Amino acid sequence: MICQTFYVALLHCEFLYAIAALNLAYPVTPWRFKLSCLPSNKTDDYSFLPTGISNTSNSSGENEAVVEARFNSSGADSANLSEAAFHCCFWSEQDKNCPAHGDGTEGEGFVPTVGSSVFQRPGVNWNIQCWVKVDLKLLICSGQPLLQSPFTNSDLRVHLFYVLSEVVEDSHLAPQEGSFEIVQCNCSFEGRWECRVPTPAAQLSSTLLMYLKITAAGVTFQSPPMSVQPVNVVKPDPPLDLHMEITEDGNLNISWHSPALVPFPLQYQVKYSENSTAALREVDEMVSATALLVDNVLPGSSYEAQVRVKRLDGPGVWSDWSAPRVFTTQDVIYFPPKVLTSAGSNVSFHCIYKNGNTIVSSKEIVWWVNLAEEIPPSQYDVVSDHVSKVTFLNLKATKPRDEFTYDAVYCCQEHQCHHRYAELYVVDVNINISCETDGHLTKMTCRWSANPMQSLVGSSWQLRYHRSTLYCSDSPSIYPVSAPKDCHLQRDGFYECIFQPIFLLSGYTMWIRINHPLGSLDSPPTCVLPDSVVKPLPPSSVKAEITANIGLLKISWEKPVFPENKLQFQIRYGLSGKEIQWKKHEVDDAKSKSASVPVQDLCAVYAVQMRCRRLDGMGYWSNWSSPAYTAVTDVKVPVRGPEFWRRINGDVTKRERNITLLWRPLMKNDSLCSVRRYVVKHWTSHNGTWSEDAGNQTQLTFLWMEQAHTVTVLAINSIGASLENFNLTFSWPMSEVNIVQSLGAYPLNSSCVILSWILSASDYSLMYFIIEWKNLDEDDEIKWLRIPSNVKKYYIHDYFIPIEKYQFSLYPVFSEGVGKPKVINGFTKVDEKHQNDAGLYVIVPIIISSSVLLLGTLLISHQRMKKLFWEDVPNPKNCSWAQGLNFQKPETFEHLFTKHTGSVTFGPLLLEPETISEDISVDTAWKTKEDVEPATLVSLLVTVPDPEKGSVCASDRCDSPPFSDRGSTEVSWEDESLGQPSVKYATLVSNSKSSEAGEEQGLPDFSIGKGCSSGNSPLKDSFSNSSWEIETEAVFILSDQQPDMISPHLSFSEGLDELLELEGNFPEENQSEKSVYYLGVTSVKKRESGVFLTEESGVLCSFPPHCLFADIRILQDSCSHLVEKNFNLGTSGTKAFVSYMPQFQTCSTQTHKIMENKMCDLTV
Amino acid sequence: MRCGPLCQFLWLWLCLSYIQAVPIQKVQDDAKTLVKTIISRINDISHMQSVSSKHKVSGFDFIPRNPDLSFLKMDKTLAVYQEIIINLSSRNTGQISNDLENLRNLIRMLASSKGCPLPYTRGPEALRNLDGALKESVYSTEVVALSRLQRFLKEMLRQLDLGTMC
């Protein structure tokens, strides 16, 4: 206000000065002023005013004019205005002293001022304001009546008279009435009027002298003169684009744009009001900037703001107020509301949260990201009571989630979050910029990928660079002064920027600037020195050749013109073809222009390429040069002459024979690399040496006449003749030398034949062999091979037809001449033994191992038998059959019987009664067949209570299978005669494979096995109950060594059946005394194998060889029964009984139950 | 007038800061390599390959003829050539001008390393005749300028090996 007052005062002073200069015209103020016209009774001296203007002025500068107003009586509204002169004056709120028309003496020139009360007097008042539009082209003065206008629009006419002060100054006099220009003002119905005075731009600083003449209702009011400088009353347009937003600091930023075309600094006046639930405040502030920050913004509040503008310095007119703008803050305020940052940076968000009508305490605020992850409280900060802050450290790039390319940051109260969120955009700006300088050192191409920024919608990016004078700094940084570089997107997704021309040794610091509405980001800068990223052109004039006589692959080249630095080279070479297997060779000598590398194949075409790079390792490898190829030329003389053989034509007996030498063309590896011709050299003792040129032919015929004729075939190329050559001597004597003992040809398949031979000793020096073969069935040419002399077997690979005949010849070639060949026709037949060699190698070991196993088994069995027999040897004294036997030294099992056989004759058996107690107990049955088999010979348990009285009774394991079949059926007998001597009878059966024999014999029903397997018969039950009740015994002896022996075959089952039938015939009382059945078994058939096979068990029972069974007698003593008919002799033709020797007598009167089904009394 | 010493001081400081970072031997090697590069560039211009050295063309006295062997003269001579060449129309002249700019900076750095910092030389005033020469005989101007530059650079290369004085 002080300034304003000062300005006003200053302005006033200036006006005073101007008025003084302009004869005290009223200075127009930038603010509104008033024109008041009051009735006056006196007409003043208007000496100063132009003609027609009545005015009084005083030295004090007060302005007033006496207007002669003559009212028509018809003016209804001005009826109160008497027809009198009106005194008009200007005044304003700042200066309310209007010079009243006093009663002063005429001629004094002074009009006394009056107080404000004068304005209450009847009269006419207007509000007047004059300003210049901002385009400075028009001065506008407008007026409107203070009270209701007494005049209608129809009778209101306003004219403005004006004159520029320059015109006035030029005249050096008061302006005459004719010097004024007049403009007619526009009048409105309400009594308003507006006058527009054109103001030339060049005369803005000139003073404009004006006065008004207002005519209404027939009365003319003339204002005092007023003066104005247009530049002092410029009225700008109101500010534009008023905008309000919450800043990152949480303030309300009211911003606007200044009006255009304002030639001087401006000041602004902002008025805003805050309407919140807490308070209502109105603020009016003057600022010189185009923005105003309002702090302490509250959530859920509305702000209304307006702004106007005026010239900052000097007088001016305030513009109109801008249109009001209303901004309402949300219930939750995030500041900043959106952040764009780069990966790895730190970012903080602030939040003010109004939940309902309450602003949440900052201590209660928690932060969440994407409503999925709660941010640890350690990252929170309490800024104030209501402002919470969260800080994200070392941010990672935002991973776009569908169309959401930002992270949503929520400010919550416990678990209640407002739906509004802040947006966090994190972009990975680690963009790699790679550059490459071309081989001409004129262009540097830089490439970079915009992939990391693709997800940032609405962003654009630009490469900016700064070029240093020389080199790069160690730590490149973003320079404030930089230049953009146009880059073009390539198909591979990379942007490519080209610098051309370049400063080779200037450092180009480059970075990518990402522009986004939220801000801009810069990638880390990279400094590139074009000289250090040179990719040279490949070496030129690359040539490759195989050096003559040396045999190396020589590559020559010319280095590229640029760069001038030392270069290293890399050569790659390989055999030319579709897929070249490259080998590399490095050349580090920068001055080298050629290099040689050894290659294996000197006669092949090699492809060679080269590339280079700076020797110091900077820059890149050049591209590979275009391939250069070697040409195949003769490198050296042929390594050797061709292998050759001969074909002898003509009669063998004749001394003169035509010999055709045959040789194969030399291959490239031997000829190095071509053969121009072949030369045959001859040596004979008679004719000496001569040569024959065979040209390109591969055969040559000559006449062999001499005793010995030696030939050599030379290969000749462009360089010379082969140095190492084969000799062949044709010698008559040597042709009779035969050192090949045998020759065999064994076909492996249709494409390979093995040729093997055996040589005899020889005094001649064998050089090599020649193998010849040909198809005798066809007229094929002879094929031949040279074989080293140390080979004994050779695989000939050819196409052989097995059904055709081939002739194979093996020629030993001595240094003295060709020896006598060994010739065979056709393939050698291989014996079956040989053919089955492979099988033999497998089978023989199996047979041997089986034999060893069998032998071992026999030995074990033998030992067991010996143990069985000799440990349980019967007392010879008590056992008649054992007399005469030496049990202490048994030779074999057979010996026992053989010996006995010899000593005992058949005859009527007069057996002395012996008390024999037969208790045969089978405690356990063999459950399975396998359990039985391991023992070749198994005896049933024989209990010999009194060895002195006991007799040998070998159990027959033939019994086992039936027991086995019966499962765990226990056959027991009631030993009612304990302490009684008893003899147990058992059957001794050899277990061997005889099933086949048994079947062959066709004795299915008469096997002991079957008899043993009576478990399937009805006997089973009774047998299980009491074996004795069966009262059947089957005793048999078979011999497998007597060819004439009649093998007994007993079908025990059938026998048992018969026995069961017979059983019923026996009286009950007889059961107490059981008979021992001496069973003889007639021979039914001869058995070659001499074994007896139980049908079911498969146990083979062998028979003592000495058992000559001619007859079987069944003896019955007093306590026995003859159950002769119980034995079914099967199909045997002759029913015979062979007596057991010695015979066994029945047991004592004591009744013994013999449980054993079979008992074999083995005796002679 | 006041800016002169300040600019010289800043230039010296800039050079010294680079000297600390870049070995002077590398600077010298780079200078020689750059000289060779410029010579090769001139050779690479097609019409320069067939120019005979026997002819003497008059009217181009403003183009330096005799190279001076001091760093200062080198810099001034290079500045003259740079000013001439930048006005030539051949394809590589722009690149050669850039190379001369780099070479001048290297020479300044070498001079600074030997204790004789060079003031920055702006475009010489002796090229008043250049515009006229270019208008009248562009080809001759180019051939003579490039030929003389090439000879100058070869001599300069030799002097750099021997050790140039301030």
From TrEMBL, chain B:
GO biological process: adipose tissue development; adult feeding behavior; angiogenesis; aorta development; bile acid metabolic process; bone growth; cell surface receptor signaling pathway via JAK-STAT; cellular response to insulin stimulus
Entry GO MF terms: DNA binding; hormone activity; leptin receptor binding; peptide hormone receptor binding
Localization in the cell: Secreted
Any Gene Ontology CC annotation: extracellular space
Keyword set, alphabetical order: Disulfide bond, Secreted, Signal
InterPro entries xref list: 4_helix_cytokine-like_core, Leptin
Domain of life: Eukaryota
Signal peptide boundaries: 1-21
Pfam families (UniProt xref): Leptin
Signal recorded as keyword: yes
Keyword set includes Secreted: yes
Major site of localization recorded for this protein: secreted
Disulfide bonds: 116-166
Function: Key player in the regulation of energy balance and body weight control. Once released into the circulation, has central and peripheral effects by binding LEPR, found in many tissues, which results in the activation of several major signaling pathways. In the hypothalamus, acts as an appetite-regulating factor that induces a decrease in food intake and an increase in energy consumption by inducing anorexinogenic factors and suppressing orexigenic neuropeptides, also regulates bone mass and secretion of hypothalamo-pituitary-adrenal hormones.
Entry similarity comment: Belongs to the leptin family.
Protein name per Swiss-Prot or TrEMBL: Leptin
Organism: Chinchilla lanigera (Long-tailed chinchilla)
Upper taxonomic lineage: Eukaryota, Metazoa, Chordata, Craniata, Vertebrata
